[in-house]
Write a structure and sequence with these properties.
single chain; mainly alpha; 6 helices; 0% strand
Length: 181
């Protein structure tokens, strides 16, 4: 058993729980956009769609969501992987690693696809000046945005499932199972 120190098990457990919780929050966020928000916006006229999308985007950009849930999922999962690697808990580490890879997909899609599109929409004229909302909505490209958000929803849900199973595996290891398996 490498890297075993008093309190190490509690730290690994706590970080794994935080990784699971924050990833679950992110998965719920992506699923909500895929299943409720974008279908709802699709049903309204251009001005309402653009105004609502901008308002939602502005509301999301806050420390609690960005710092705790979205970034926390990545950081806590990576930290959990490091702690389980150091402890030689390979079974849990495999699931945590799979979660980390899945959540990296969420990150790549967010910053490679969504953020550039969101930024275009943020800067597509003043919503109070009678700007051409049809042009702004076309810049959103709802179909493409929704497809890639569905990828984020699936990837974050897979990450959440992997972390949930990692908790089960971690628990078994903590109860005296083979720590080297």
């Amino acid at each position: 058993m490498t890297g075993q120190r008093p309190g190490g098990e509690a730290l690994r457990t706590g970080i794994l729980i935080l990784a699971t919780m924050t990833t679950g929050l992110s998965a719920g966020f992506c699923a909500n956009w895929a299943n409720a928000i974008m279908p709802g916006l699709r049903r309204v006229e251009e001005g309402t769609c653009v105004t609502a999308f901008r308002a939602l985007d502005a509301a999301i950009t806050n420390p609690l969501f960005i710092g705790v849930a979205f970034m926390g999922a990545l950081l806590f999962t990576a930290l959990s992987a490091g702690l389980h690697l150091r402890a030689g808990q390979r079974t849990a580490l495999l699931w945590i690693g799979a979660a980390l890879v899945s959540y990296l997909v969420v990150f790549v899609v967010t910053f490679g696809v969504h953020e550039p599109v969101n930024e275009q929409l943020r800067t597509a004229g003043d919503p109070n000046s009678g700007a051409d909302f049809a042009v702004a909505r076309a810049q959103l490209d709802e179909a493409m945005w929704t497809v890639w958000n569905t990828v984020r929803a699936v990837a974050s849900t897979i990450a959440f499932g992997c972390l949930t199973w990692a908790l089960v595996t971690h628990r078994r290891l903590g109860q005296g199972g083979n720590r080297r398996t």
